[in-house]
């Protein structure tokens, strides 16, 4: 069962009619500030390096922006609840940090937005600049089925052409809603959370690596309402103009996230998200009403579980919406059968000579090349699968070259980046330097935790010992981690600092101690080569490994790439990007080391109060920790979206400026462009990478920027230029020779099914970026 939908304009008019509750808006902004204070890059965002501003994103003053929103609320410049929500969402989103998330209830709880079409961006020959097409047209031109959700009239027209045995070609899009297509799309892409502009552009479009993740990815692309595009109103209609002069207009839609029973006026709708009383937390008592001796809960919801109340007082939960499977019996569309994969299929191994997809056949020219596809670092059997594949590839099957495909990888569990790295450098310790903002709240947490963990301390209550045992695994225990040179911290001040950089105060450089018993206990496993676990066998020579991304590499993925490039000098290839000449970054997502949910922060603080005796609680109430006694950030956000911050920066070894890697522009060694066949078959992409790097197919594939031992090609052709000589349009005019070469019609069923995908993320990790 799908969520019900209505016309986007109808939904927009409905929610825009809800008048602003001024006091509630001000209270929400104030409640966010203590949590935002944990965002590690908050000061650098306001004054980033010049190269970052020129090539990546402009500066943004988050605290100044929050104050401006309050001022506009007070002056009447913001009149509606939806207008307030848009301003608040856009401000946080403008940081382009996928760990830094706040989605107000007016943005994510009532409606999600979408368009009834997906787009693709491809180069005719891998050299000319890419053009944009309607994916459903592209699929039909290739002979595949079109999903029933596509505009009925268009589907019927395509069916008539195919029934007549004719071939036709789609026409490139030249304008969207009256603007040049490239200009419109680059502007729209800024609503996404990635920071690199080429990665943002790629995420607009239908992508095999995203689609196979079903509800956990950007699905059909942010332009169509996948990923974070689902929270941005796309206007009432999408009007397209094509290169052949034809036009087409689609009505955009809104999917309804709640029951509207009894909500028959703006006033009643207002009640569910702007008149919620904040019961608050009694920090000096048992937090959340939990009895420390019995564990019995009261009616107060835990942070992050969604405390919104509907018209009848019941919690608002998303309606059931099963995500349709993108693949069929043969597996996900566009991928060949793997030699091995994890139980959730997020990690899989392939041999490039025997791989065969919708377009490709086995090819002995690639007999030396293996591919490790890693869509995230979350699978429970990640360690075992990676070890078996890498060992079998090199020892049994004599593969000597490896492509690591990290496309559409939002990260996962931080420590698994270390695990993967060790297979290529068993005797090397990756640096992994991180730091926090040295705020009053952070210092107070650490100072009191360190004192309470001392044997025989007098600051804890009788039941506090159990809680403090759990605190041994947290950052606030100075004994857990190691410093920049691999030594244990000797006290909390030695860990907290503070140290000044970029106009802010930060902790000392903190590294995970992979031999630490508390860390191993919390993980449930030891990283290869640490804490008694055997070292892995060295498999591929790092010089014979290349990393492939589409720019959507974030968090734990970024950490692995940092290790691979800085320590092992692994080659990198980025694919796709904007229709302009130039380089593209390998990592376009957040490079921060650790995401902290608002609920994590509040739970740790309230647990600290809970562990303390009466005197300690009174002392803590005199600190900034007393500001975390509000439930508003949770009550005013969607049930299934956790507010969060990037708590840890990644800091490069021996960087005298101690600049977060988030603000370093780093181009890939080689940039390739998507070709038509790649839209349907990942094997084509992998073989292009192998050919560009190692000349596996005679070196026919050239980097359009960068390269390996030879200059890159400069893309030619006009911006948004034609493709495959397509001058006939999507209105059913037949042309000859328009099918994608080598494509088998019968292999396309999964693509048609995948057009109905929606982003409904459920996965979480300490180093994971929500789509």
UniProtKB/TrEMBL annotation:
<feature type="domain" description="CPAF-like PDZ">
    <location>
        <begin position="113"/>
        <end position="260"/>
    </location>
</feature>
<dbReference type="GO" id="GO:0006508">
    <property type="term" value="P:proteolysis"/>
</dbReference>
<feature type="compositionally biased region" description="Low complexity">
    <location>
        <begin position="311"/>
        <end position="327"/>
    </location>
</feature>
<dbReference type="InterPro" id="IPR029045">
    <property type="entry name" value="ClpP/crotonase-like_dom_sf"/>
</dbReference>
<dbReference type="Pfam" id="PF23658">
    <property type="entry name" value="PDZ_CPAF_rel"/>
</dbReference>
<dbReference type="InterPro" id="IPR056186">
    <property type="entry name" value="PDZ_CPAF-rel"/>
</dbReference>
<protein>
    <submittedName>
        <fullName>Uncharacterized protein</fullName>
    </submittedName>
</protein>
<dbReference type="InterPro" id="IPR052766">
    <property type="entry name" value="S41A_metabolite_peptidase"/>
</dbReference>
<feature type="domain" description="Tail specific protease">
    <location>
        <begin position="369"/>
        <end position="570"/>
    </location>
</feature>
<dbReference type="Pfam" id="PF03572">
    <property type="entry name" value="Peptidase_S41"/>
</dbReference>
<dbReference type="InterPro" id="IPR005151">
    <property type="entry name" value="Tail-specific_protease"/>
</dbReference>
<dbReference type="GO" id="GO:0008236">
    <property type="term" value="F:serine-type peptidase activity"/>
</dbReference>
<feature type="region of interest" description="Disordered">
    <location>
        <begin position="288"/>
        <end position="340"/>
    </location>
</feature>
């Amino acid at each position: 069962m799908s969520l019900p939908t209505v016309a986007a304009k109808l939904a927009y008019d409905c929610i825009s009619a809800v008048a602003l509750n001024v006091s509630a808006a001000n209270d929400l902004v104030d409640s966010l500030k203590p949590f935002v204070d944990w965002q590690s890059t908050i000061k650098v965002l306001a004054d980033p390096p010049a190269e970052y501003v020129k090539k990546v994103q402009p500066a943004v003053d988050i605290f100044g922006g929050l104050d401006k929103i309050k001022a506009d609320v007070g002056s009447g410049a913001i009149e509606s609840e939806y207008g307030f929500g848009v301003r608040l969402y856009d401000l946080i989103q403008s940081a382009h940090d996928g760990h830094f998330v706040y989605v107000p209830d007016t943005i994510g709880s009532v409606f999600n937005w979408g368009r009834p079409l997906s787009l693709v961006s491809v180069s005719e020959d891998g050299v000319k600049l890419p053009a944009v097409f309607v994916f459903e047209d592209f699929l039909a031109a290739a002979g595949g089925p079109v999903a029933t959700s596509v505009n009925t009239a268009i589907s019927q027209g395509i069916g008539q052409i195919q029934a007549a045995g004719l071939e036709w070609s789609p026409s490139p899009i030249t304008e969207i809603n009256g603007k040049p297509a490239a200009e419109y799309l680059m502007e729209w892409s800024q609503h996404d959370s990635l920071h690199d502009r080429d990665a943002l552009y790629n995420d607009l479009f239908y992508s095999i690596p995203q689609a196979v993740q079903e509800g956990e990815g950007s699905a059909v692309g942010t332009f169509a309402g996948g990923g974070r595009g689902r929270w941005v109103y796309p206007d009432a209609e999408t009007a397209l103009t094509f290169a052949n002069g034809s036009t087409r207009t689609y009505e955009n839609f809104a999917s309804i996230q709640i029951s509207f029973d009894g909500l028959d006026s703006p006033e009643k709708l207002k009640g569910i998200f702007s008149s919620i009383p904040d019961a608050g937390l009694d920090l000096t008592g048992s937090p959340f009403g939990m009895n420390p001796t019995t564990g019995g809960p009261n009616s107060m919801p835990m942070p992050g579980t969604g405390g919104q109340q509907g018209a009848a007082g019941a919690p608002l939960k998303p309606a059931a919406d099963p995500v349709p499977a993108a693949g069929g019996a043969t597996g996900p569309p566009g991928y060949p059968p793997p030699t091995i994969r994890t139980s959730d299929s997020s990690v899989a191994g392939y041999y490039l000579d025997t791989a065969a997809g919708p377009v490709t056949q086995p090819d002995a020219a690639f007999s030396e090349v293996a591919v490790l596809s890693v869509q995230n670092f979350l699978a429970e059997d990640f360690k075992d699968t990676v070890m078996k594949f890498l060992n079998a590839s090199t020892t049994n099957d004599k593969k000597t070259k490896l492509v690591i495909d990290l496309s559409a990888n939002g990260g996962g569990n931080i420590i698994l980046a270390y695990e993967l790295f060790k297979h290529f450098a068993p005797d090397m310790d990756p640096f992994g330097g991180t730091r926090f903002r040295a705020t009053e709240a952070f210092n107070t947490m650490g100072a009191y935790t360190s004192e309470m963990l001392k044997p025989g301390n007098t600051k804890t209550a009788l039941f506090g010992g159990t809680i403090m045992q759990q605190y041994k695994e947290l950052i606030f225990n100075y004994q857990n981690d190691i410093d920049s040179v691999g030594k244990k911290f000797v006290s909390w001040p030695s860990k907290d600092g503070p140290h000044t950089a970029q106009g802010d105060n930060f902790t000392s450089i903190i590294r995970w101690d992979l031999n630490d018993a508390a860390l191993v206990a919390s993980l449930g496993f030891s990283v290869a080569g640490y804490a008694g676990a055997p070292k892995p066998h060295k498999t591929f020579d790092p010089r014979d490994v290349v990393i492939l991304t589409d720019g959507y590499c974030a968090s734990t993925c970024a950490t692995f790439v940092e290790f691979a490039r800085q320590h092992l000098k692994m080659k990198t290839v980025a694919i796709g990007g904007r229709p302009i000449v130039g380089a593209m970054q390998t990592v376009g997502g957040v490079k921060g080391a650790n995401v902290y949910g608002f609920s994590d922060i509040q739970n740790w603080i309230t647990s600290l109060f809970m562990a303390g005796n009466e005197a300690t609680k009174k002392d803590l109430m005199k600190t900034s920790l007393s500001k975390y006694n509000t439930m508003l950030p949770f009550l005013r956000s969607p049930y299934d979206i956790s507010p969060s911050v990037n708590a840890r920066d990644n800091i490069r070894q021996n960087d005298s400026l101690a600049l977060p890697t988030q603000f370093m522009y780093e181009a890939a060694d080689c940039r390739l462009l998507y070709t038509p066949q790649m839209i349907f078959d990942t094997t084509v992409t992998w073989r292009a990478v192998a050919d560009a790097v190692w000349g596996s197919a005679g070196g026919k594939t050239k980097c359009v920027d960068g390269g390996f031992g030879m200059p890159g090609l400069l893309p030619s052709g006009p911006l948004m230029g034609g493709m495959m000589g397509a001058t006939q349009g999507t209105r059913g005019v037949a042309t000859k020779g328009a099918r994608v070469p080598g494509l088998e019609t019968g292999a396309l069923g999964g693509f048609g099914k995948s057009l109905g995908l929606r982003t409904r993320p459920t996965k979480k990790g300490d180093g994971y970026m929500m789509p």
